[in-house]
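Pasting as-is:
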Amino acid sequence: MQNQQGMQSNQIANPQTGQLPQVKNQQMNDRDFLNDGLSTCKYITDSLNIAVREASHQQLYTEVLQILQETHNSTRELFNLMFKEGWYKLEAADQQKIDQAYQQFSNYSTQFPY
């Protein structure tokens, strides 16, 4: 029981709304649709990031950058909704791992030319 409670305390999540069916069938439910939309938005933003970096014409760059920003906003809205409904869980980082990563990347700053 102690180990199970310890594992649960590392998760950052809201309680699920309970609106999902107990037994999953072939039909998509609200969580499935949102998860699909979130995955699609993540894929699109990755692709648009490349397009923005490689745009050879200023107007194309500006237009794709605008679309990228809108897609990032949509992705954030989907994430917020899924998190609010308890359908997206995050793992809390261990403070020791955070400190190690901070130390590692802080040391990189000595390599900068300025």
